[in-house]
């Protein structure tokens, strides 16, 4: 409640400002700018809102990246089932969300903080900027970052320019944070780490490792340099689930729960059913709720969970509503109070892949892989991690949609790799194990899961059943998956010259089947 008060007070102060405010319009009952400066309120009030907007709403994530990563699927045939999830772009709002609600206020708060010499607030805002655009660029490719705020339509950065800027900014951010670990000024505005600057440094360093691995096929030398820098930095990396970077929901309901339980617009995916049931993964009980109608799971009644195929044939919404919802605990704001942006399991899986690639300081691939799985089981309160990691026989199952006759929406599982580590296996087999487990552990934060699928080809996801792509937004061939989102219409209409420049830096047409820079399509090793 205090954070909302800060925001309200800030808006009052800003809206009341005129050139001669102090001399002619002083109101003894109104909070002054000088009063707001007490306890850093005039800068700190921006941060809860900026952080809250790192995740969008239904059309930004659930009907885009969450579907493309194949964690959740929708029962609803929106727009006669011709929409984002079937590769016809209908909603495309993430760009505006990040610029209007993060980049713009970040610019303002940085100017205020710089004027008052609050370097930690400056770099905290810069870290949020890096996080925002490093996520959004995985949708679009080139974006406005180093030129943001310029008059007359800022030009886009190419993806190599973006990542060079991210790493350069992280150098400065981490250095400043490391030098000020005893600073306490953030505490009233930081619902994630309670103002612990050392924890923010640890997150920033872990973010560097994420970004380094993302570009490993496009620029392996830079990836190795930046990855090894993260592995050696005195800030350290996330080590336990206590280090996880979680966003406070500030008393609001977890938005996917609203989509699932209030609107009945999302359910478990068929891919989750195939992988979790096949691997006999106990995290399924924390992720989803079982079905009540056992006829839906006659092929595996001991694991009574049923998902919807992504990009599936959908006729009527009611057809698939009896399928598994997300776990009902997500619907209770007193039980689910945060949403993760990065968790320690991801760091362990990054280190496992780094070890395969021979990066100094990465440690042992198997030890990191198994630590990642155990950390994910611990996070979700799941039992049986040791037995799970020893299983060298179970594989994901084939999927059957029991609602429609024939083979509509059915698919044959393509994954033949088991969970148990095999030190004698080649690096490709080991990488598939790492990324498949990383995909499972990414549940509720699907952006990196979609990144990894495009970057590595793992997990071996099924194709969409109904591909509605066409020349309007680009055609995705029947044996491929969507690669990116096009630049939004708001940019095409308001910033056409910059969009044209951005397209020239994209490496292909502004279409959904154009690969991003780091998605080379080449071999993993």
TrEMBL record:
Top-rank taxon, per record: Bacteria
Keyword annotations from UniProtKB, A to Z: Lipoprotein, Signal
Gene3D superfamilies found in the cross-reference section: 1.25.40.390
Signal sequence, start to end: 1-18
UniProt cross-references to SUPFAM superfamilies, sorted A to Z: TPR-like
Protein name, UniProt field: Susd and RagB outer membrane lipoprotein
């Amino acid at each position: 409640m205090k954070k909302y008060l800060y925001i309200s007070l800030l808006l009052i102060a800003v809206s009341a400002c005129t050139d001669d405010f102090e001399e002619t319009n002083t109101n003894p009952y109104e909070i002054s700018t000088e009063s707001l400066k007490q306890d850093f309120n005039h800068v700190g009030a921006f941060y809860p809102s900026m952080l809250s907007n790192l995740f969008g709403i239904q059309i930004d994530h659930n009907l885009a990246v969450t579907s493309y990563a194949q964690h959740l699927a929708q029962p609803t045939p929106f727009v006669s089932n011709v929409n984002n999830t079937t590769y016809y772009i209908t909603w495309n709002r993430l760009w505006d969300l990040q610029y209007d609600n993060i980049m713009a206020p970040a610019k303002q708060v940085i100017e205020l903080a710089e004027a008052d010499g609050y370097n930690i607030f400056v770099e905290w805002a810069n870290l949020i900027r890096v996080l925002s655009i490093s996520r959004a660029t995985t949708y679009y490719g080139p974006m406005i970052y180093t030129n943001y705020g310029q008059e007359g339509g800022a030009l886009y950065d190419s993806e190599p320019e973006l990542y060079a800027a991210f790493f350069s900014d992280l150098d400065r951010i981490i250095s400043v944070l490391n030098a000020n670990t005893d600073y306490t000024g953030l505490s009233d505005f930081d619902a994630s780490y309670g103002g612990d600057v050392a924890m923010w440094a640890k997150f920033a360093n872990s973010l560097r490792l994420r970004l380094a691995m993302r570009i490993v096929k496009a620029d392996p030398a830079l990836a190795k340099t930046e990855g090894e820098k993260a592995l050696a930095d005195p800030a350290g990396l996330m080590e336990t689930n206590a280090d996880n970077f979680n966003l406070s929901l500030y008393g609001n309901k977890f938005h996917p729960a609203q989509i699932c339980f209030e609107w009945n617009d999302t359910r478990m995916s068929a891919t989750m059913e195939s992988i979790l049931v096949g691997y006999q993964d106990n995290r399924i009980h924390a992720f989803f709720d079982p079905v009540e109608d056992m006829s839906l799971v006659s092929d595996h009644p001991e694991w009574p969970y049923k998902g919807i195929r992504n990009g599936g044939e959908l006729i009527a919404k009611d057809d698939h509503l009896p399928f598994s919802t997300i776990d009902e605990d997500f619907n209770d704001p007193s039980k689910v109070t945060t949403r993760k942006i990065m968790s320690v399991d991801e760091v362990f899986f990054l280190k496992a892949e780094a070890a395969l690639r021979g990066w100094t300081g990465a440690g042992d691939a198997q030890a990191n892989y198994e630590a990642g799985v155990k950390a994910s089981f611990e996070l979700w309160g799941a039992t049986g991690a040791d037995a799970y990691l020893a299983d060298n026989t179970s594989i994901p199952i084939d999927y059957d949609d029991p609602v429609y006759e024939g083979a509509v929406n059915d698919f044959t599982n393509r994954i033949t790799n088991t969970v148990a580590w095999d030190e004698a296996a080649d690096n490709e087999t080991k990488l598939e194990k790492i990324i498949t487990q990383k995909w499972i552990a990414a549940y509720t934060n699907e952006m990196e899961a979609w990144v990894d699928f495009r970057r590595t080809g793992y997990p071996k996801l099924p194709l969409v059943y109904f591909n509605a792509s066409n020349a309007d937004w680009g055609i995705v061939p029947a044996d491929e998956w969507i690669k990116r989102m096009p630049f939004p219409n708001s940019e095409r209409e308001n910033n056409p010259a910059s969009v044209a420049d951005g397209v020239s830096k994209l490496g292909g047409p502004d279409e959904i089947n154009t690969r991003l820079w780091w998605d080379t399509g080449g071999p993993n090793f």
